[in-house]
Structures are given as C-alpha cells and as structure tokens.
Amino acid sequence: MKEHDKTAHDPFRLQRHRTPLAGGALAIVVLLIAVLLLASCGDGRPGFWRRGGQNDAALSCPRPASVTGSEFNAQEAGLRALRRAAFRGDVFAQLELGSRYAAVRATDKNIEDPIESAVWYAMALANDEGYAPINRVERNRGGLFGGGWRPLSRYDDCRAFERHRAYQVLDRQLSRMSREEQEAVRDRVIYVLSTQDAEGYRTLARLHDGLYGPFGEPEDNPEAREALGRAADGQGLGQKRPRGGYWAAINLFQRNDVDAYLYNYLAVQTGDVGAYVLMKDFERSSPGRAQYAGFVEAKARQWTPPFEFYPLEAPASGVPFSDESRPRGDAYEYALSRLQGELPFIHVGRALRYLGVTPEAVTAPEQLSRQQIEAFEAMIGHATESRLSPVERVRAIQLAAVNGSSEAQLVLAVMYAEGIGLPADYARSFKWFSEAARQGSPEAKFAMSTYFALGVAGVADQDKADAVAYRIESALSGFGPSASRLQALLSQVSRAQQQRR
C-alpha cells in the first residue's frame, strides 16, 4: 500500500512511465502522415517516390496510335500530320515532333535534326496547354480519411512530367549548339508564333518578360522554378537547389522590357481587344515601362518576321519540312480573294520558271502539267494535290524572291504594298523593294524614290536627297516614268534650297 501511494505521489516516476508511450504515439503519427503523403498526389507533386521506381513511359502522357500505316511514305505522312497539328498549337504534337527530330527511336535516325527538335520542344514549353491547370479538383475534399486527397485525373501530373523532361532535353540540345545554331532555333520559334496572330505575339511577349517564367509560364510554376535552379514548392521561395538550373534553355530568349512591349504592341495591331487590355496592364506592371511607348511604336512599324515562310532551306535528310502556317483572319482571307483578279498569273509563271519548275513562263494555270505542280508542291513541303491553291501561288513568288529573283522581289513588294494575296505590310514591302533595288531593278529604285519622297511613317522617313538619288538611278536604268517625275522632284528640292537662303 505504501509503495502504491509512493508511486501515486511521485510525478517524475509517472512521467518516466508515460514517455515511451508518448514517443510511440508520435512515431505512429509521423508514419501515418508519411503514408498519406506517399499515397496522395497534391498540387505540390512530391515526385521522389515515383521517378525512382517508375519509367518514363509510366509518367508520360498517353499517346494515340500511329496515324499512318505501313505504306512506303509513312514517315513523311506522319510528320506532315504532326506538323499540321503542331502549327495549330497542339502541345502533344509539338512534343512528339521534338522527339522525332531528336531521333529517340532508331527508325527516325534518318531525319535527326537537333535544331528542328529544339524548335518544337521550345514551342511545347511556351504552349500554355502544357502548364495551364485543367484538373481543378479540391484535392483535400472529404477530410483526412475521406479519400479526397487523390486526384480524379493524372492529366495535370503527366503534363508536368512532360515539361520537366522537355526542359532537360532542350537544355542538353542547346548546350551542344553554336551561337548561330541557337539563333536559328530562336528565329524559327519567332516565325511560327508570328503566324498565330494576337495569341502568338502575346506568347512572344511573355517569353521576353522577366515577370514570367523562362517560357512564359507563371513564375511560380514548379518546372519553371526547377529550370531556374530554385527550390520547388514547399522548400521555400528563392532558395537554391544543390544543382544548377537549365541555363542553356532559360537563356534562349533574353528578357528585356523593350522586346516584351514590342510583341504586346504587335498583338494589339492585329485588332485583338484583349491584347490592348494586356498591353495596358504590361505598362502598369513595372515602373518605367510606359516610357518606352514612343520608341516601341516606331520599332513595331519596322518589324518583320525572320522568314517569309518556314524554313529557308530543305533539310539534309531529304524528308522536307512543311510550312503549315495557313493564312487566318479576315485580312488574310480578303487579301487571298483579291489574288485571282488582281495578280496576273504570268508573275506566278515567271517565279516557277526561275525555280526551274517549268522551262518557260506560263500565263495560265491550265498550262501547267500535273507533274510540274506536284514537283513544286514537293519543293515547298506541301501535300501533292495536283492543283495550285491560292496560298501556293503566293508561296511560288515568295520562294523565288527568297532565292534571289529581283523580278519576284518586286512583285512581292507590290503585293505587300497593295494587300494582294497578303495583308498590307509597308515594312515588308519596303524590305523587298530594297532587295530588288540592290539587284538593279529600275522599277524598284523608282518605288524607293517614292518612299523617300513621300515618307512612310516609321518605315522610311521623308528624305529628298535619297529620293533624288534613287530617281536618278531609275532614270539611268531606263525606267520611263522617271524622267518627268525626276525633273519635278529636282525643282521642288531647288525651290526649298532657295527659300532657306
């Protein structure tokens, strides 16, 4: 009895009995929490337990079966289908193209092209379909033991892994490239996005905006933070990982406010109302950004995409790239509708002759044979349809211009100036007039003199001296209308000098 009383009145003795029990309970609680974390799949996506025990195929998003059969040209047909989807913003087609051109499979070794592979991995990373949350499920709904921590779909998680892997592959590819090759990747991405109207320009703006992740995703995106070498969610914002980030990938596009503003401005010029709202938000997002308005406006008027079409040369593999950037929007449709009645077919015929498709310039599409049409379609990477579509007529002139035909350059400049076949674009018109004039075209020199005589805001400032120089060169080259107009222009210049005296 005394021993019992002693124990009851000895708090330290009682605590010694309870300590093992408390320690055991704490261990059980920690174990339970660990099990719940391993079984759950929350927004933080702790992945150390999965990536070690599962292969990439288990973590990747499912892919559809091949779109082609065992026919002779299955590889080329498959690439065409993928490129059509990729140019229209299908993130999985972009990822698949990156994989194909990287020659992950032995059967794709003949089309291996690191530059083209990097282009499509970069396009997939910049595509908001790859990182915008789709599965908006309350992950903790149902309480701790209600099973609500498990997601209803793994779509968000597999996309996250696809982007994680895309960053790794792109960084490895760019690290092995020269500066010129990296510039080729960047120019092709800019061209593709510039064909997507306001949406593409807004993506380009985010790629250059330091307030976003490396490829325009939100700054707190886990894959973006990993690429930057920062801690993932739950490890503290701004903390550094032990290893570095993907520096080659994140430096493909340099961040600066001027370029970000420029692409926002170009998005507004497409007529998109939402782009205007976003541009105003951009101006207010950081002190001093609005001060670039006047400079960016002038720069935007002179901006032209890196290419006329994609790409400039055929790949070494012999399996052609195809430019699937189809005209879109009312401006393009209206410009194409004017092609039939306002552009004589002889200009297309001369372009085809210059390209070696026909031995002489034809004056009507009926004069082209089926073999000649299919040869040209193969040349530009289009599917053979045995007829020249309006877009292909434009491509014939563009391809001849790019390959050095001064005649095609002059025609293309007029098409851009008048909005025939292509939407009016004075910057591109001035560029092709300049190219043709450099090759000695008297008509192009006369057009250049008109540009400088009248002045085109932002493209060519009014400069009477340059106007006279081009007009003289045009007249000496034998262009008829130059003589009388030259005399009138010289008299204007002389009167202006007399007034200054």
Automatic annotation (TrEMBL):
Keywords, sorted A to Z: Membrane, Transmembrane, Transmembrane helix
Spans traversing the lipid bilayer: 21-40
SUPFAM superfamilies for this protein: HCP-like
Domain of life: Bacteria
Record keyword Disulfide bond present: no
InterPro entries, per database record: Sel1-like (IPR006597), Sel1_AlgK (IPR050767), TPR-like_helical_dom_sf (IPR011990)
Entry-linked Pfam families: Sel1
Protein name: Sel1 repeat family protein
Source organism: Brevundimonas mediterranea
